[in-house]
Amino acid sequence: MSSIQILPPEVVDQIAAGEVVERPAHLVKELVENSIDAGAGVVTIEFSEGGRYVKVTDDGKGIPAEELPKALERFATSKISSSDDLWKLRTFGFRGEALASIAAVSKLNLTSRPKGTERAYQLLSDFGKKTSVDPVGGPDGTTITVQELFANMPARLKFLKSDAAEATQIKTTLKALALAHSGVAFRIYEKNELVFFWPPCATRKERAEQVLEIKSLYEGQAQRENVTAYAIFADPHTVAKTAKNIWLFAQNRWVQDRSMQAAVMEAYRNLLMHGEYPIAAVWVEVDPEYIDVNIHPTKSQVKFHNSSLVFRAVSAAIRESLEQAPWVPKGVAVATPTEFASPVVSRSEQASFSHQDFHVTQYAKKDFPLQMAAKQAEERRDTFQSTVLFPTESAAKEPTDAKSVASVKYWSSLEVLGQANLTYIICQSRDRLVFVDQHAAHERVVFERLMAAWRGGKMEVQEFLFPLAIDLTPDKVEALAVLFSDLEKLGVYLEVLGPTTVGVKAAPAVIKESIMSSVLDKMSAEALELGGSFRMEKVIGDICATMACHSVIRAGQALSVEQMKSLLEEMDDFPLSSFCPHGRPVSVEYPYYKLEKDFGRIV
Asked: Superfamily assignment of 460-549 in CATH?
């Protein structure tokens, strides 16, 4: 029978190193964050061999010679002194484990010179065995060199990926650290070659455009009770194939958080195609006592006191800005109109989408002027709304949802030239040709109208003679019960019939009775994980998108110039008209300079 024994210190150190330094990128993160905590303004990182060699140099406050040995001891730190400090952290390091763990599995050289002192001092560690502290030459700040990482742990070496893969992860980590610390200059060398240089920036947006190499990014901010979210993001035209370009920060720490990532995806609802992911960086700030950063050895995860508030704040920070469509040109110059008189066209002569000719595959071209009088434009708008969107007279007079009205009339400023392949509206502005997908454009217009009707409480609600009994797990029933009052605002009336059953007394008519079970199951599952009543809006959005897709003009359908103009005017009512509800782009642009280059008019 084996007896209980105390593990030797070197084994304990290696166990700790395996938790704190899983791979070279974690080592780099710990060292750079130490530099940031030391007040560094410039940090230089050099690495090779996939991170088995790393050198980090900073111009921070430095470490006094007499404290260098303590820096390599476990649980030695200058950043906290009591357990209460864990709930009011203002630094990135706090456990006092990183340097000790790194020193236990590498050859480490720690050289430091506090500002105002005459010389630097050096301490060497050979896989945990420290030498004496000796004076050396060196600048103000601290330099740490790590060599032969994991050489004393052959099993750990086998789990490392290729040098190229580990190097990629290091560069990803450094990008995240640079995003988090816009006021710090970063120089990064791989195999003695400078791969990145990011000088200090005045704002997070400027740093994000610098690091992500995207010229036009947008900002948004939202607050939900004690949670503040700030976001920098790309427009829905600029997307990635994976979620790796969603950068998340809590208290300015780079973290991995499913709730925050889901909130970013929710913000782009109905703007991205399947398989597309947004490019965004999001910062969440909460009162320190409402977040726990001490739940993972690598400090890559956090726990929020109220993840629902975080979800709502993050989603709102991006969505509220997206709904303004900041990428749409502002103050667009209208193309010079064709110089001929505009004859008066009566309302009866104007074409509308309900006209019988609209259902004919092709018909003779009608000669309409390119620019119409304002009165006629308004009549076309009335015709469009009354005959296509809201057939009844009262519905046609309903005001558009205030959030949906665009302040700049971009689409109607385009000059309509004609129709290509009975599918694309050909337009021009002063400096480019614009092709508009008529089906996608009309689909967005009808979708937004349907969603506005639902948000305004105009969506038809059906009551059931007997409540529909839906069986769920007890925790899901409890999650839905908390949301009853919110769900009633959405037209969903529920009651608890038992510990594992809810009854649906009424629901929006657009939701089929057969899918209520799956709708409530998904809603309750996400309410448990993320909180909030956003799930129903997403479900309604998906249903409205399907309805719109099947009730609008199709590709291959002939339109008159008037009909095309009416559609463009309707698009101006909705900022997100650049995309159909399924995320497809509505238009494609061709600048004239490209045509001139293709024709050899310019070089």
From this structure: MutL, C-terminal domain, regulatory subdomain (3.30.1370.100)
